[in-house]
Each structure stands twice: as structure tokens, then as C-alpha cells.
TrEMBL record:
Its cofactor is [2Fe-2S] cluster. This is Adrenodoxin-like protein. Keywords: 2Fe-2S, Iron, Iron-sulfur, Metal-binding. GO terms for molecular function: 2 iron, 2 sulfur cluster binding; electron transfer activity; metal ion binding. PANTHER family: FERREDOXIN-2, MITOCHONDRIAL, FERREDOXIN/ADRENODOXIN. One of its GO terms (biological process) is P450-containing electron transport chain. The lineage of its organism: Eukaryota, Fungi, Fungi incertae sedis, Zoopagomycota, Kickxellomycotina. It holds the Pfam family Fer2. It comes from the Eukaryota. Belongs to the adrenodoxin/putidaredoxin family.
Amino acid sequence: MFKTLAVRTRIIPHLTSSAKPLLATSKENRGLSTVVDIPDIVKLSFHTENADFQLNAHIGNSLLQEAKRSNVNIAGICEGKKVCNSCHVHLDPRSYSLVGEPSEEEVDIFDLATGISDVYVPGRSRLCCQIKVTDALQGADIFIPHSSQG
Ligand code: FES
């Protein structure tokens, strides 16, 4: 669940006695070693009207890749080529603020999609094929409208 990253650090004394020492990192350093745990999986949830899917999502993959890997009921027909709009989801407000607004190209896809206007929600709607899983998405709630279910 965690990658272990060993970071070598060296304390560099400052010229004045009142200043705090600076830390530096280097492959050649022979100073102190610090172990930092970096999570490579986050827990998040997809929801439909009838089902909830909890999954351990790999950081760096798209939300769509992780949903499909976990057999979540989402269409994602074009598999991330940004032509189908069948991976449209509603993010919880916190997650939406973390991933940000859709690109112009993504907005164009929403505009062109037929039958989507009734489920498009400003400030919540995104194409999940365009969202990378990051550690900040830990605990995200992602709602799949009926039109995007597989
Ligand atoms: S899977 Fe087609 S636009 Fe995202």
C-alpha cells in the first residue's frame, strides 16, 4: 500500500548562529537518512442510484481506468479519447475543487453530447477519463449519472 522512499539529508550549518540549519538532499550525501512513506493507493467510492463501489485506486492512473479495473458500472466507451462523453460523472464538491474546472475541450464534449443537458451539473460534472488519481482524492465520492452507466 505504501512505497518507501529513502531520502538522504545533510544538515548544512548556516553562517550566523541565529539562523536555523538548512536541509539538503543529494544522491552523494553521506549524512542522515530519512524514510518517507508515500501512499500509492487511495480509497474512493463510485455511486449509482442502486449500487456503491468502494475501491483502492492507484495513484497516477485515470479515474476511468481505476473504475473499469474494479468493475464499476460505468460505460467509458472511447476509453479516454474524449469523444464519447460516456464517462461523465459528478464529483463531490471537495473533490471537484481539488481536480478543478474541465478544459475547454472537455466542455465542448459536454456541449456536443445529446441528452446530457439534464445531468450536466456546473461545479460537479467532469469526464472521469480526464482525471488522474492523486493522493488528495482520498475519500472522494463520485456519482455516475444514469446516462454514463455501462
Ligand atoms: S471515456 Fe469517452 S470521453 Fe471519457
